[in-house]
Amino acid sequence: METKKQDGYARSRCLYVAEAALEYFISLLVTGAYLAKITSAIGMSDMLTGILTSFVSLGFGFQIIAVFLANKRPVKRWVTLLHCLNQMAFALIYFIPLVHLSREMKIFLFIAFLLTGHILNNVVNSPKINWFMSLVEDKRRGSFTANKEMVSLIGGMIFSFLTGHVIDRLEAAGNINGAFIVCGVSIFILMLLHSLTLILSMEKPVEEAETCSVKQLLKDLLTDKNLFKVILVSVLWSVVNYASTPFYGSYQIKELGFTMTFVSVLSAAYAVVRTIFSKPMGKYADKHSFAKMLNICFAVALSGFIVNLFTVPGNGKIFYTVYYMLYAIAMAGINSATINLIYDYVDKEKRTGALALQSTFCGFTGFFTTLLVSPLVALIQRNGNRFLGVHIYAQQLLSLLSAVLLIVLIVYLNTTIRRLKSGPCATL
After folding, report:
1. What is the C-alpha separation between 424 and 303, in angstroms, rounded?
2. For site-directed labelling of 43, which of 69, 231, 290, 402 has its Cα 20 to 30 A away?
3. In terms of Cα–Cα distance, which of 301, 323, 296, 304 is closest to 413?
4. Global confidence as pTM
5. CATH number of the domain that residue 238 is part of
6. Domain range for residue 225?
7. Which of 243, 400, 248 is nearest to 320 (CA)?
8. CA 118, CA 95: separation in Å to the nearest integer?
9. Residue 390: in which H helix or E strand, if any?
10. Alpha helix (H) ranges present in 134-252?
11. Nearest Cα to Cα of residue 44 among 104, 114, 1
12. Helices (H), 43-139
């Protein structure tokens, strides 16, 4: 009986890898240059596009709802349902440019569907991660996460290239609406496949001792000083990231003049580089610690933002590519590490709540960071790409801001996190 259960867990881990890949394919179609294509067709400004791009972060803020659902069993029933609804909302945004409505109504519907999709996606994210990661041995978390990312990235590379090529061909033929239909239908098909992976997966039985009341869980989490020190790492990274990257999608299309094919090639190169470094990063974290791995990743990300500080239309293809590859190396470890730091410091019965709390702080912080810097983007563009008398693109100045903030984060990581005593599972 036990052997049969373990076989089921092994199959569920494989299904989790497939689930993550399918979800990643969908996310590619509602971020960056893809999103900029829709907003451009509707007639939105770069400032508004940047704010909408940061809805990814705003959606994270609603993961706190997961705390109230943490003990609701079976998890996969409501996770599957909410995932279907969130992905259906994403599919619908591609049909908005096709309907005969006012520009204002199209913008309203776009915002409503996009925000709904991100909120629902993030409500289920923490319980889903905890559901599947509970099937993975603690000592293999780094390697497993790396393998999962590798599959997503390689598959995403192929998917993004094919999709980008189709969009360019249809747009060149004067049929951008056809491109939107292809993307919308693709999300719908991916949604069906994604739901199937969740339905077929097993859920590990939870012992009564592993559960506690929502009130007690929140009290325990909110009084855990070490937890908040760890969460602050993710919060600061969210500020660094969302101070600049939400505006890069429009920058690629409008200022740098990239085609969707070139954007897809960049995405493919990003996936290859991130895949190459994902496995070594995971092994390094398993051997040394996720905190030490973060130190390396943040240093690489800092180099990328510095390169992007000097990226202009004249050197765009070379410099932006260098930045993007450095960013890929950094992200090969950052996402995994920020999640696994929680697993290092929090008891298993509290992990869903801790992940939700972390995402909530990060989500709202990231969104409001973008909201605060967006007027600066509009100001520079209104002044003909000039700031304080200096000719500069908004994205260059934002890259400088991200670099400075990242230096602060690196100092915090080395002066605070690296000195924390190890938690229940940690070897920091």
Report:
1. 34
2. 402
3. 296
4. 0.68
5. 1.20.1250.20
6. 2-203+214-419
7. 248
8. 18
9. strand 390-391
10. 141-172, 176-200, 214-222, 225-242, 248-250
11. 104
12. 46-53, 55-60, 65-69, 75-93, 103-133
